Amino acid sequence: MILRTGSALLALVIATPALAQVPSQGDLADLVRAQAAEIATLKARLDRLEGQQAVASAAAVPAERQPAAPQVAQNTPVTPPEARRTIPFAPQLVPPGPAERSVAQADAARTNPSGLTTEWGSGLPVFHSADGVYTFKPRGRILADVSTSFGSKSDTRNLTTTGMRALRLGLEGGVGTHFFYQMEADFSENEVDVVTAFMGWRDRIRPGLDYDVRAGHLFNDRGFEGSTGSDSTPFLERTTVATAIIPQRGFYGIGIMPRLFWKTGHASLTVTGDRVDGTQAVSDGRTVLGRVHWNPIKTADTVLHLGAWGFDESLSPAATVLTRNTVIGGRFNGGLRVSTGPLLGGTGTTGYGVEFGGYRGPVWLMAEAGRRNARLDAGRPDFTSKAWSLSGGFFITGDLPPYNPRLGSFGQPKVLRPTFDGGPGAIELTARYENLDYTDLVTGGEGWAGTLGVNWYLNSFTRFQLNAIHWNTDNRAGAVTGSDDGETVSARVAVTF
């Protein structure tokens, strides 16, 4: 710095002989200002170098000597503090993939100061291009079940079966902060079935208010468990509200879904046709579905959840059969169902439901109820279905329930002490009562089930589940009619990437 200042002074002397002996006050002031600017620049560079050395030193400290941060995924890029303050995401969940990130999370992944191009969060890596613009992640889930039923008055229901609840492969990714995509195919029935397949755009309206818009083959946003993925449900099968109060087209449809997010909730509106098929000779059905959830109480260990949803569906001329056979005691026993009996001549359906629950510490509770009116032709009155459920759980290991306040559903947990690191994992005890009523039809049945379960999460993406179910059915049509009850014991091993 001294040499640089001296050079400036010598140049001034050479250029202006009159000032060679006595520089003016103005010239000296200019030199002082130039010197101060150089000092400020050098200080800024020194601060940056010291910051990088501090990060490198922290990374070199053994894990046992670093401050504990059990709710942050290993090797996940550090999010800047200003971005963390704006991310409405629960720390007990694994970081979301590229297609489910908020605007702040997507932007933080691009501007991550660590310079990493790969991050590991839940089983498979997330790849980033060197400039942070492109993001890509493989996806997959393997859910293998075994089930045995006994105690029924009919041997056709006393079965022991195995099955793949899900066997999926897929991918997701993004370009920049705003564009994202996802696709998955399922092979669980030994055939290819396209499930989620969409592209989308996300942005911010103002601080604390974000939105995204998805277009493609979309999963319903409908109810608490109806909006929870099959790899995240607290029981082996969703409640009767999720499986019975549903559009006739099922859980998926091709269309568009705008979603709005604020700090304490979200709202969505979905307009779709039929699910992926090869039928183009007749018009698709049309389904309009909306949902809103709100967390009026939301603290570090306490959440209150309120939600409501509804849909209206106009059936395709090629899909007028409304017969339902709904799971009540386990998915993999085809003889154990609550049935409507044959029901033809449907023109549309309308359904709606409410959600109420939340968690405090390791304990969670959720109540759901729904009603579905099926419109029939030839002037016949609507057929009404009714269902409700009450579910709860307790993590005896002290982990928080994997509740996602952004979506109002369950997600993949971030286990505090994974078994692969020498810990016990996360152990959860669960209980549920559910009821289903199709008796508005002369041929319609009814049923209920009580379930006790235990979930053992080895880490954030591997778990074992065990459910013991006592069920009761009273069908008026089908192979087994009249009152019947029994037990089903089901188990699952699940890996989600």
From TrEMBL:
UniProt cross-references to Pfam families, sorted A to Z: Porin_O_P
Organism: Sphingomonas insulae
Signal peptide range in chain numbering: 1-20
SUPFAM superfamilies (alphabetical): Porins (SSF56935)
Keywords: Signal
Protein known as: Phosphate-selective porin OprO and OprP
InterPro entries reported in the protein's UniProt record: Porin_dom_sf, Porin_O/P
Coiled coil start-end: none
